[in-house]
Amino acid sequence: MRVVTIDGPAGAGKSTVARRLAERLSWRLLDTGAMYRAVTLAALRAGVDLESDQALGVLAENVAVELPPGKVLLNGEDVSALVRGVDVTRASRFVADSPHVRRRLVDWQRAFGRENDVIAEGRDQGTVVFPDAFRKFFLTASLEERARRRHAEFAQRGEAVALDVVLRDLEERDARDAARAIAPMKPARGARVIDTTGRALEEILDDMEADVRRGLVGQPAQEEDRREGPEWRR
Ligand code: DC
Question: Residue 122 sits in which domain range?
Fold first, then answer.
């Protein structure tokens, strides 16, 4: 099926933009960060050693993460709110660094993309997971603006975290995401880079929707798309 990828650092506005764009196009949203978060929550609950790729891999093989519209399910339990907490957010970088976990989640993500027209949001969607995506975007914003947005999100959830702590966490997480050996965060070849600093959400959405719709004109029918699709499995 057709895939649009949206990658970029934390707080760049990806989640909101991806969700709203998916609504506008009536496509499914693939929130891959939520998948890493769900595995992180499972690891914290099970007391798994976060530094052990082996242990995290075994865990990831034995949990079920599902993304029905608007929800995150871990072994059938609705953990949508829990995975957004500060503890899960902090610990998620260990899980994101695990090659075992990444392999498992990439398989799930590609399976989701075979079944649905998707807006795939994450760090490696255009580079690794869907290199043949029909349109790729890389959203970014200044560190200060991204920290302000994340800080406001935590405050809205009733979690009091100082702005400078959020900023330092973001800086550290970005550096790790960009430097990691597998699936480092960077704009995919052919991706359009959009800086959302100081720009209104609706304006960005109008721009991206028009961009995608232009590309849809003259696209082959979905069935043909699937037959001619790339080799998803590695
Ligand atoms: O986008 P987010 O903050 O919900 O992501 C949660 C964590 O998962 C974060 O540490 C980055 C990581 N991640 C990743 O490594 N690859 C993805 N495709 C999506 C998220």
Answer: 3-203
